[in-house]
Amino acid sequence: MSHPFEPAIATVASLLADPSRSQMLLHLLGGRKASASDLAAVAGVSAATASTHLGKLLDGGLVRVEPRGRHRYYALTDESVARLIESLAHVSERVSTAPAWRHPARARLKFARCCYGHLAGELGVQLFASLLQRGAFDTRADGLALTDAGAAWLQQLGMRDTEPSGQRRRFAYACHDWSEGVDHLAGELAERLLQHLLARGWLRATGERALALTPLGQAQLLPLLTPREATVS
Prior knowledge:
globular
């Protein structure tokens, strides 16, 4: 018996159930925009099939499209979609002894990756734990507010832009990490922080969602974090 007043989760679930569409969404979870041809290559399907899939994702509200001249680029609709995908990833990967965890590509994702513009994985969790240990945040109804101690510690990392932009978006909040089972930092501040780490050469993008810790990051970033095993990727 159907219940018309309950959320229509089956509709969204059916969109995510297709492996090609889920692969496209996981690619976009990295926070980058991608063309239809890029997403077709990621999913291993033809351009026509990719167009059909993207039309369904658009209709379902899971992605948005941005025209740029003659080209169109796709992205996740908003952070709620990113959190949904992260939550599903956590549920599907709860058995940490599965063979997939031993693959080098999975190990790189587990160590450090981009999650909708912020740092996730072991390194993201370590960074957030370091902030919490230093009393960097006060809890608010809409998430986390940066304290003077938190701003001072981020300045030790060389980061100066720590004030909310005033835009209608969440400044900072805890996001559950699918591979680690605990939280990393998300929101506007986390996005700025990741860009800062990349700009300083402490992290580098690998072309996929995975991020690599550079020798410079090993030498200059890790000593500032709460001790935890970490190696150059």
